[in-house]
Amino acid sequence: MQAEEIVGSRLTNQSLSRWLHSLPGVDKVGLEARAASLATRSIKTTSKVWGLDMAIKMMDLTTLEGMDTPQRVRSLCQKAMTPDMDDPECPTPAAICVYGDMVPHAKAALGKSKIYVAAVATAFPSGRASMKVKLQDTKDAVAFGADEIDMVIDRGAFLSGNYLEVFKQIQAVKQACQRPKGKPAHLKVILETGELQTYDNIRRASYLAMLAGADFIKTSTGKVTVNATLPITLLMLEAVRDWFDQTGELIGVKPAGGIRTAKDALKYLVVVKETAGERWLTPELFRFGASSLLNDVLMQRKKLLTKTYLGPDYVSVD
Amino acid sequence: MFDYAPAPEAKLASFQKSYGHFIGGKFTKPANLYPTINPASEEVLAQISHGTAKDVDLAVKAARSSYEKVWSKLSGAERGKYLYRIARIMQERARELAVAETLNNGKPIKETRDFDVPTAVSWFFYYAGWADKLDHAGLGHNPQALGVAAQVVPWNFPLMMLAWKIAPALAAGNTIVLKPSETTPLSALLFAEICQQAELPEGVVNIVTGFGDTGAALVGHKDVNKVAFTGSTEVGKIIAKQVAGSNKKVTLELGGKAANIVFDDAPIDQAIEGVINGIFFNQGHVCCAGSRLLIQESIHDEFIKKLKRRMSTLRLGDPMDKNTDVGAINSADQLAKIKKLVKKGVSEGGELWQPECKIPRNGFWFAPAIVDNVSPANTVAREEIFGPVLSVITFRTPAEAVTKANNTEYGLSAGIWTEKGSKMLKLADQLNAGVIWSNTFNQFDPTSPFGGFKESGYGREGGRQGLLSYLKAGK
After folding, report:
1. Has this prediction a pTM greater than 0.90?
2. By the CB < 8 Å criterion, does A48 face chain B?
3. Which residue of B has its CA nearest to A270?
4. Which residues of chain B lie closer than 8 angstroms to A269, CB-CB?
5. Which residues touch A297 (CB under 8 Å, ≥6 apart)?
6. CATH of A3-308, one of 3.60.21.10, 3.20.20.70, 3.40.50.300, 3.90.550.10
7. What ipTM did this prediction achieve?
């Protein structure tokens, strides 16, 4: 559906603003209580095995450090291709997530594997650069062969009520994801929920990103104090569910930052199942942005399959 | 498919084959036995004594004797110590109490574990703190206990209702004879063991099990000073008649038919959760359940669609499974009553909808239900169903919402869902209900008084006001 059709009028900052502010409010206490109640679900035995495998398949294994090197990226790719050296049946993560300049190294290391390469772009993590720079950043990563682009929104523009500016930037980046030949890169739009602060803002930013053409809405860069939380993810899942009802478009959700344990990952899967529904329980529509999560999931998985807890020395550090 | 594998709670509670009454600090010899069952499986859990007038008399005598000889002579601080001790032992035995409650009541372990038991415990902690501060209860210097309190509690929250009754009564210095419901006596009998464990002086708390006739003998006993009852309005009326003309002080916490009012400017997703929690919590066996959804006409269709989708995710089944949301109906009688009322509501024009769910073969079950297009004259809009059945009524303006919400014999609770504070406050002022929640539902706290208007009863439980039901002004 066209944005104007959804908003119901010509797109101006005023009409966008009116539309976003007409969305139902979010009651903080109620939202957090719902997330807390879902977090008490008890996931055991067969469902735990299923959940841990799914968590691995949904993972964007991430390294986003100033000190990243080609060697580090290659070793992370190696880890992604064979997460468990002893178990060839172990599923592999959905993608490797790196800075744009590391894309060629990741592509080379992953070779013919089906693991995608996701690149952060648009002056990640702050997004404070000219549009020209943001678009070039995106185009570089796409040209290097990135399968997915994780962009950041301009939080300054959003918080000052300049929704049309945010909308246009997302649209422009979406355009920069096109390739002359072949499939365009998938666009994940990072809302940086920790900086948007209120749940009402997060709901509005989710809708704005979906309206502008996001394939995924993503919580955080992992670089601010508050990153992904269960209530925020629940809220964003409600947004994609309602968006699908309204438009028939399936949009993905990616919580990122701060999800470190298998137990946490299972809680997120419960929230996906009971909010958006089973349809979203696929790497096509739900991802975890994480670095240390994989090893904890691997340890728990080994424990379930071998009935012995081996400890951190039996999984590789990356 | 992400199906949750069974996650059963361990059966951490064990019961004796048979129980006598708890009188004067000891269990009497079991007599006049009847079985108490697990309503989710119909399996017999234990044999319970059906109390006679003679048993009641013995219990009241024990309570009177301990009131005069021991309890009324203790300082408030000393009484408080016992209450704290009981609270701590309940915490230590929390999982056992939760399991016992779930087995005997049919409600999900998730609820007994996270709600019933912690709330019951919080009542003891709260009133333990009051025991030596009665001068500040609002009755002036040195207020006095009433004497022996007769307390009759229902089956929907057996342990929590026991705590609501016993904790303030003891803090105020009364002694007690309590009768639990005939279908759910086990947690009260475990509580009797806790009284022994806490070395509570003999006779301060007495528990007589049995049916309505046992309760009538207790309420009508000439030597009780106070009657506290939670249960149906029907029985409440009988009790009110029975005690009329006596100088017994009475509190009655009876039925309800609460309106949960949802405006078009509500936080919709949280309102859905609140409506679900309002009526499907504890299978709707809640006197303050939000059993009437008053939905603004302009959002009726969208809201009901979302509500149905959410209802489809409710997990009905084994109450001992940690992932069960909706457990068993407490008794065959209650199930029959729910079915009868729903049938009547449908025959009067209501549209029944229930999600598909697998109903276990044994036990008593009723799938979560909504009855849409209900007129205010429909039986399901007027009578308390006390089951997982939500009646849907629409309104157009705030004034109409108030009129329809107040159009009931009851007046226990109400819910208002709107993001507009001024509207919420204005409405709260106009609703005739003892408890009004806004943008939430079914919240309980020992510091907050609870009770109803009209046929929902009189007197307040909880908070400072809850103490007043067990005190009189000092000389």
Report:
1. yes
2. yes
3. B2
4. 2
5. A52, A55, A56, A59, A262, A265
6. 3.20.20.70
7. 0.95
